[in-house]
Write a structure and sequence with these properties.
Blueprint: H1 2-33, E1 37-42, E2 45-46, E3 50-52, E4 58-59, H2 61-73, E5 76-81, H3 87-92, E6 98-104, E7 113-114, E8 119-128, E9 143-147, H4 151-157, H5 163-170, E10 174-178, H6 181-190, E11 195-199, H7 200-209, E12 213-229, H8 234-249, H9 252-258, H10 265-268, H11 292-332, H12 337-352, H13 355-370, H14 378-404, H15 408-416, H16 421-451, H17 463-474, H18 478-504
Parallel strand pairs: 1-5, 1-6, 9-10, 9-11
Antiparallel strand pairs: 2-3, 3-4, 6-12, 7-12, 8-11, 8-12
Helix pairs in contact: 2-8, 11-12, 11-14, 11-17, 11-18, 12-14, 13-14, 14-16, 15-16, 16-18, 17-18
């Protein structure tokens, strides 16, 4: 009888546990179905549509619209800054719900599911106030800057670019692509570019911030802004669309736009106007892809130019930094305390600050410290100078450890044999030092291969920057994967070469 009671008790407990678990799963499922957060992806360096204000908060016209949509929907807004070149990866992976950041619809109608366009936008040209450029025709032979994967780039080089814009672009001395407009305006201020092709709202924002710039009267192109969702995600798009329509009808959208009247936004609202609904319904998700092999070959060919740029940075940095590091070692080990401290301070700064910051100082320093204009060609030289100065500091400490690791008795023995200090170093110390430092030098050389990607900080297009640009246009991670293969193969070759050198040095 007791056994039956125990059995029934266990069965009741099991049934109770199962029912509680089922209820919990049901509750979780219902919560999952009910949306509570809305993640907006935006470029945090794109004022006045999205940027960080003086208080350290993310704000902007588009973010204010998103806040009002979330307030009416009962959602929690998550403002997610993204790398603009990786926006498609962010959206397609589900990391963000939409791209809401002055995003141009024109030319991208089939790539996303859009809301109705809400702002009329134009691509304009900004130059320095003292520039002799007063019209688009004056851009002939000039260096013009655009953001990568932007409407400005599409207007000048895209498939739908007008014949006039194609001809205009061909007249430029060079069309430079940068990752953000902060760098673009630094370049313009420093004189390394002659003009920037940019969205009119961003242009007005910069003109309000810096009186040293002026806006050309002619426009390059006109397009419209919309909110982009993952292709086929019409359910979420419809919810946002309905709320935006309410906001426009009751005047809330116009009121928010009035907060940004100094930046041409209030005048450019076009929501619900005739002809702006061209991208609203995009429900067909049957999109065809190229065969993998064909796409792989095509992307690899595009990366070819970037690979050559990365290799040039790598080899020139080694050529300059390794002997410079040896010179720095001699200064660091000098008997003069002043020289020792100079070397110590230099090494401390180079190893204690980011390489990217050092590149920016080398490139922009001459202008902001001495008022000198920096040419476009200086961009590459600044990359090599910055890398060489940085890696020389690391090599110097590696060399010093190799020299100081050699027993003092060998120097004494050489002195007894009548060797001079120069002969002792050249014939005894230096060969052994080379053998000892090969493993740590190999690590630094392998790191240099990967660090070449930091050249993007100066808008110098090496392989990884090119891979990111292709990723943005292709909406595929394949370019980054191919770039990763190159880095691995090249580092594998470097490791093999250094290992062969190490074996030859075993004589010492």
């Amino acid at each position: 009888m007791k056994c039956d009671r125990k059995r029934y008790s266990r069965m009741l407990l099991i049934l109770l546990a199962v029912s509680m678990l089922a209820g919990l799963l049901t509750a979780c499922g219902s919560k999952k179905d009910e949306k509570t957060t809305f993640v907006v992806g935006f470029d945090a360096e794109f004022p006045p549509y999205g940027f960080k204000d003086e208080d350290g908060n993310y704000t902007g016209f588009d973010l204010e619209l998103a806040e009002e949509v979330c307030r009416r929907r009962g959602w929690e807004l998550v403002k997610q800054p993204i790398d603009w070149e990786q926006k498609n990866m962010e959206l397609n992976s589900g990391a963000i719900d939409c791209i809401w950041n002055g995003f141009t619809v024109d030319g991208r109608e089939e790539d996303y599911t859009w809301t109705t366009a809400y702002v009329d936008n134009s691509q304009v040209v900004v130059v320095r106030k003292n520039s002799d450029i007063n019209s688009l025709s004056d851009l002939k032979g000039k260096v013009v800057c655009v953001q990568s994967d932007s409407a400005a780039l599409a207007a000048l080089t895209g498939e739908d670019a007008s014949p006039e814009n194609i001809e205009l672009c061909e007249s430029f001395k060079e069309l430079v692509q940068i990752s953000n407009y902060v760098s673009a305006f630094l370049d313009l201020d420093a004189g390394s570019v002659d003009a920037i092709c940019i969205d009119v709202g961003v242009a007005y924002y910069q003109l309000n911030q810096n009186p040293n710039f002026k806006l050309l009267k002619e426009t390059v192109s006109s397009e419209k802004y919309g909110v982009a969702f993952k292709y086929g995600n019409t359910a979420l798009r419809n919810q946002v669309q309905e709320t935006l329509e309410e906001m426009y009808s009751d005047g809330t959208m116009q009121e928010i736009a009035s907060h940004w009247k100094d930046y041409y936004i209030a005048e450019s609202l076009c929501f619900m106007d005739e002809g702006t609904d061209f991208a609203y319904r995009a429900d067909d998700t049957s999109k065809k892809d190229e065969p993998f092999g064909k796409k792989f070959v095509s992307i690899s060919k595009q990366l070819g130019k970037g690979i050559l740029s990365s290799l040039s940075i790598f080899f020139l940095t080694l050529i300059f930094s390794m002997p410079l590091g040896l010179l720095l070692t001699f200064i660091r080990m000098s008997r003069l305390k002043v020289l020792q401290w100079v070397a110590r301070i230099y090494i401390s700064i180079m190893r204690g600050t980011p390489l990217m910051l050092q590149l920016l100082v080398v490139f922009y320093g001459p202008h902001f410290l001495f008022g000198a204009d920096t040419s476009q060609s200086y961009r590459f030289y600044a990359v090599i100078i910055g890398f060489s100065l940085n890696y020389a500091a690391y090599f110097a400490e590696i060399y010093r450890s190799g020299i100081e690791g050699i027993p003092a008795g060998q120097r004494e023995a050489a002195d007894v044999l009548g060797y001079s200090k120069g002969q002792t170093f050249r014939k005894i110390i230096f060969p052994q030092m080379c053998k000892r430092v090969i493993p740590p030098v190999t690590n630094e050389v392998i790191t240099l291969v990967k660090d070449t990607s930091l050249a993007f900080a100066l808008a110098y297009t090496e392989m990884f920057t090119l891979a990111k640009q292709i990723t943005a246009s292709e909406a595929s991670i394949l370019p980054l994967f191919i770039a990763g293969i190159f880095y691995y193969i090249f580092n594998f070759i470097v490791a093999m070469v250094m290992e062969a050198i190490e074996k030859k040095m075993k004589y010492y």
